[in-house]
Design brief:
alpha/beta, Rossmann fold, ten-stranded mixed sheet, Protein arginine methyltransferase NDUFAF7, SAM-dependent_MTases_sf, mitochondrion, transit peptide
Length: 448
């Protein structure tokens, strides 16, 4: 049975249904070569040489350290020096496939803002905002529903470690209305303003984002955080490390430590039944930060990512040119990722907030009214090729064999969000206490 959408959410969705360009494919900027320049420029520092030198000096490194170096090393890191998004990059994300994705998330944000009591301040905080496509679609929803927001002060806060991507985000979101900070140690390293006058700020870490009612978005963010890998052996849990292949000195290999490490002694749960486990300790820290902020200041977090609920084992993989790539070959030239363990994130939240999900992307988007949105766009579109693109992008987002069941949605909410208001005391004619607003996307909602 097709899920219905709640009345309040339906009202928001119906007001966003304006015919705009259906697909947001944009060619990525030319990616820089990993080799030497034909013009005689100095060759780029080698990530492989850096890693082998490090291993020779200190011994095998953890998979977490390997991922951290390969992805975010300030000189040779993949995210630091590449524009990897889009058809010409190494992977493409849902916001680049269809504008509908970002529009429905914009409706979700407004729904949770209303569920939180319509505070006068709304901070939209995105972790790892890619090219800025998702934020752009969300802000367009805000602009179309400005009357709903009323006098609320809205601001956009982007947590981004990549200088290349931050410049691309600034161009897409602010045009020429942004500038970098004068000092490297400034918490806000870039400031800007959208064409509608909305302030935009860039940060390197979540801690620097100011306190206040915030809706946090993390789309394909947690899957790129460093993981530790552990293997069950006859002697107990041992950590999987990265070492130099002794037979081929310019190649890397996985090894299992002969004795326990601090990580294998502290990160693996005592009741773990799997034989191979991946734990993202950094992701756990960020979830605790989000839970604390939501508990203290209100708001919500919406996480969308590849993931599972504590069932999978070895998911560590690389992507290059939209194809799977050996994670230990040509480090720094490909994206590295691992499926998010949502059961671990739930455990790290430690009851400080309410955790909803994970639910599949197909379920979430259908609960949010993607079918209705598609029909509206099709009715307003006469061009056959555009209609074909609309249907194709819808299929990509919702088809179980494509993104529909590979991606999952997970949310953090304050306990007050789902608690019933107290009934007034001392009155003979008491009205029934109103139920809290349902959370859009996470259940089959119906008209009241």
């Amino acid at each position: 049975m097709r899920p219905l959408v709640g009345a309040k959410t339906q009202q928001l969705i119906s007001r966003v249904f304006t015919p705009v360009s259906p697909v947001r494919w944009r060619a990525a900027q030319t990616r820089r070569s990993c080799g030497s320049s034909p013009n005689g420029e100095k060759p780029r520092p080698s990530m492989l040489r850096h890693l082998t030198s490090k291993i020779k000096a200190t011994g095998p490194i953890s998979v977490a350290e390997y991922m951290r170096e390969v992805l975010t090393n300030p000189v040779t890191g993949y995210y630091v020096r590449n524009n990897m998004l889009g058809p010409d990059g190494d992977f493409i994300t849902s916001p680049e496939i269809s504008q509908i994705f970002g529009e429905l998330l914009g409706v979700w944000i407004l729904s949770e803002w209303m569920g939180g009591g319509r505070p006068k301040q709304l901070q939209l905080v995105e972790l790892g905002p890619g090219k800025g496509s998702l934020a752009s679609d969300v802000l367009r929803v805000f602009s179309q529903l400005r009357s709903v927001l009323g006098e609320a002060s809205v601001s956009l806060h982007l947590v981004e470690v990549s200088p290349v991507l931050s410049r691309l985000q600034a161009q897409n979101l602010t045009g020429n209305y942004s500038q970098e900070a004068g000092a490297e140690d400034e918490p806000i390293y870039r400031r800007g303003e959208t064409t509608t006058g909305l302030p935009v700020s860039w940060y390197r870490c979540l801690d620097d984002v100011p306190a206040g009612f915030s809706i946090f978005l993390a789309h394909e963010f947690f899957d790129a955080l460093p993981i530790h890998k552990f293997q069950r052996t006859e002697k107990g849990w041992r950590e999987v490390m990265v070492d130099i292949d002794p037979e081929t000195p310019d190649r890397l290999r996985f090894v299992v430590t002969p004795s326990p490490t601090l990580a294998s002694s502290t990160l693996v749960q005592a009741d773990e039944r799997r034989d191979h486990v991946e734990v993202c300790a950094e992701g756990g820290v960020i979830i605790q930060q989000l839970a604390r902020r939501i508990s203290e200041d209100g708001g919500a977090a919406l996480i969308a990512d590849y993931g599972h609920d504590g069932t999978k084992t070895d998911t560590f993989r690389g992507f290059k040119g939209h194809q799977l790539h050996d994670v230990l070959v040509s480090p720094g030239s490909a994206d590295l990722t691992a499926d998010v363990d949502f059961s671990y994130l739930r455990r790290m939240a430690a009851g400080g907030v309410v955790c909803l999900g994970p639910v599949t992307q197909r379920t979430f988007l259908k609960n949010m009214g993607i079918d209705t949105r598609l029909q509206v766009l099709l009715r307003n579109c006469a061009d056959p090729s555009t209609r074909k693109q609309l249907i194709s992008s819808y299929d990509m987002l919702t088809n179980p064999a494509k993104m529909g069941e590979r991606f999952h949605f997970f949310s953090l909410l304050p306990h007050s969000r789902l608690s019933k208001p107290k009934k007034p005391e001392g009155l003979k004619m008491e009205k029934k206490s109103p139920a809290p607003l349902p959370v859009a996307g996470f259940s089959e909602l119906s008209f009241s």
